[in-house]
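User: Can you fold this complex?
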Amino acid sequence: MKDYDSHLDGFRFSATSAGIKRADLERLDFGLIAADAPATAAAVTTTNVVVAAPVILTRERLQKGLCRAILVNSGNANACTGEQGIRDAIALTAEVSSELKEDPNLVVPLSTGVIGVPLPLERMKKRIPSLIQGLETGSAKDVAQAMLTTDTHLKMVSLKAQTSLGWIRLLGMAKGSGMIAPQMATMLAVLLIDARVEPTFLREALHSAVEKSFNSITVDGDMSTNDTVVALAGGSPQAQTLESRDRAAFSDLLTEACMDLARQIIRDGEGATKAVEIRVQGAQDTASALRIARKIAESSLVKTAIHGEDPNWGRIVSSAGAAGIAFDPNVLDLFIGEVQIVTSGTLASNDWEPAAREVMKRREYVITLDLKAGQAQGAMLTTDLSEEYVKINADYRS
Amino acid sequence: MKDYDSHLDGFRFSATSAGIKRADLERLDFGLIAADAPATAAAVTTTNVVVAAPVILTRERLQKGLCRAILVNSGNANACTGEQGIRDAIALTAEVSSELKEDPNLVVPLSTGVIGVPLPLERMKKRIPSLIQGLETGSAKDVAQAMLTTDTHLKMVSLKAQTSLGWIRLLGMAKGSGMIAPQMATMLAVLLIDARVEPTFLREALHSAVEKSFNSITVDGDMSTNDTVVALAGGSPQAQTLESRDRAAFSDLLTEACMDLARQIIRDGEGATKAVEIRVQGAQDTASALRIARKIAESSLVKTAIHGEDPNWGRIVSSAGAAGIAFDPNVLDLFIGEVQIVTSGTLASNDWEPAAREVMKRREYVITLDLKAGQAQGAMLTTDLSEEYVKINADYRS
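Assistant: Here's the predicted assembly.
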């Protein structure tokens, strides 16, 4: 159930310009989210071997499952910055914890932006007192704005769910697009919930939600040095802890929020004009279904065909075959939207092409590949590959 | 040593138009290569799960390591055509073997073109007598022309090597570009040598040559249903068999020819304006080096940066980190051409950027990533990703 309130009991927000994106422009690029008291916390971070300093610190500090504040900046990823990067992230979060009179290990940094350049530490440090003051009046929307890089739209979600404690609320924000941006470090998301849960359960619920959402979208298949999703549950000292019977409702809420943000990221993919779900069903197991779906979703040939609104089914079947999973091409079914193109490995005799072309004119539709080998399924959400994508990424710095 | 003669002792050539590409235009799309006597033969074919009928037949028929003729067509891949496709390929090659008074199992088909459409069997059958007659006067160049699809250039190579039997000669031809073409089935290559070798040795030598050449290039990472490389050694009944001590010379000749054709394919990649070698060295093993090189070579972000002539080193390091191979980013070195950008994980302090930009203006250069973890290395040749690529692939059929 949608609820567009952008305040959440137990959490406060603040954002400012620290001149990180552009020293000469007053653009929001530095934000703070503070819980009134330490909240239950969990994070899912990048699987890239090259890990940015803020990710190293966030992983370490959230091991105990508690967090008081999140300090976020755009314009600089603090990645490939070595020991200096770690020292800078520690110094900045220490300023926040000292102002909040909190354990420094309960403040985590999130950064996104240029790789390989040290943070403008002094400029950022100077803005921390005003970030703290801003918590009195600041809005979540300003923080969501401050984490954007090449995104063209603010990405927020606000949902609620009925539990035995009454309604619980969730407020989420994300930064995407940069999944494919030059030297821009990828996806960040923050999920805040006004009820408390056990840390181990929060971790499980977040992993499951991320698997079904952010890990099931692809703009160009690249995984960044900074990808981080953080969830905080229960920011108010009075926040109650959910009972076991409410765990399903909590998980569903978290998953729904992550999927909503993931769809917003796909719709705002660089140069993207389409959001297409690649659904593989009838697979022997979920891992195989997902691997084939991902291979199709990441194929440049499929993505350009989607862009050209061309029902080029051979590219879909051929990229499925390149996933390294055995299947029998002589039994499969293929649909574009509701139009069946291949039945038991044989091309539909006629009339499918104009109908399939009509489906592909839509902004969002589903391509379904049924392997007829089992009961498992998996889906990936992808975008088209446009000339605009190339333009954005080839010309960005020059 | 280059030698541009396009004839080869023991082999004859013929090509014609069978109206496969376009029924209304007289374009070369049907070719025949015949040895004067059965030659030693080997093939390397696609690893795609979806395999075209001609590939199934070629694999089967070359198991004994002998081949008399290769029948090749463009315009139709005979892929995703089920039992009908197999029957058609058998029927066409049978016409050839009957004309040549040869065992039908010694004729193999190669096809490339549209997927999922049956071959125009009758039109093709009718042209076989004239293909046979053409062998008297036909040229290798016409066959090389007849196998092209979206290629903009003929791809041929002719080399010779000194052995204890004297000079041996090789003539090769390939069809590429379609590695990335819409419904066009990928790469074909034929290597002909005028000396005989043992079948098992030919198989090993071809596998090794393909690994270092065609398997080390990427235009867009997709692998087709029809990829086939065939080698025939010794087309003349008088062809002598090489001695063991000449095997290295033979292997080198085959590898050099395959690498030459692979470079021609990369230079003619759809929309490609650059051919860049991604070299990963200092890896713990060759497989890791190749996997990281491939990940970088296939990254859309790296490929657009190459197109934009932007020394965006963060994208290179980040995509290396996404290959799933552990390495220490704090010790690596990175070079674009001869310009060192990262030394032991740290960005060069200044002046690297204009110099690196200069290198990237070249049409061909090398990007070197040194992991400093071992002695192994691997390289991939890649192209840039241009707006033109998207245009070709989005608009092809419409």
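The longest helix of chain B spans residues 247-267. Residues 178-185 of chain B have pLDDT under 50 and may be disordered.
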